[in-house]
Amino acid sequence: MNDPAFARTRENGMEFGSITGSGKLLRTALGPMVFRAKDSKLTSRLVKVLAQVKNMDTVSARGSRNVAEGLSSSTAVALLEGFDFNVKASLGIILNSIVTVDDATGTISIAEYNPLEQMRSPEGATHFSLQAGFLKIDFATGAYELSLSPEDVFALENNTVTPELIPAAVPTLAGTGMHLLLIEFFQEVNGSQYMLNNGAFNVLNLVKIS
Predict the structure, then answer these.
(1) In angstroms, rounded to a whole number, what is the distance separating the alpha carbons of residues 107 and 100?
(2) For residue 130, which of 183, 190, 87 has the smallest C-alpha distance?
(3) What is the pLDDT of residues 98-150, one digit of tens each?
(4) Over the stretch 159-190, which tens digit does the pLDDT of each residue have?
(5) Start-to-end Cα distance in the chain
(6) Helix axes 7-30, 42-54, angle to 10 degrees
(7) Residue 180 to residues 20, 136, 194: CA-CA distances in angstroms?
(8) What's the CA gap between 168 and 159, in Å, rounded?
């Protein structure tokens, strides 16, 4: 525990603990969003990216470098932006359209597109839903605030849609702003919508950090 020969080992251990804590905090902050679109390797993939973010911390001493300080770097932001919580269904594979974010309101807009021609959907799906999340998270204190838009449901048909997803409120917490897009697929039977069990095509993407 105190041997100088193992100083680097102790420092690495402290930083790894900080990284895993940050990953758990982010997953907890997203609540049901991440539960509905994740893969079996999410925890390890997220830790790997957050370790790279931590390495961008240029102010803390070795052993104390952390995600909160790392995110002050534009390079670190670029590492985390675009992260897919379900690696089996990345946003770029499932949706072929332009996604834009209003930093101030958290509104996510998707350019007009035809779902049948510009979306990859699972067999048996008849409908899909879109939802935006505006998260403010403070990795230093562990505080977070998440605001969600209503879920907009669309039929998978030969038509065009121009979604605009507006979160219910703008989070007031000080911290890092994260804008997320959730896509889920359903099957309609006799007027009722049922989520497809495997969820393999469900998307949760960290579209932008502000």
Answers:
(1) 8
(2) 183
(3) 999 999 999 999 999 999 999 999 999 999 999 999 999 999 999 999 999 99
(4) 999 999 999 999 999 999 999 999 999 998 87
(5) 40
(6) 120
(7) 21, 11, 23
(8) 27
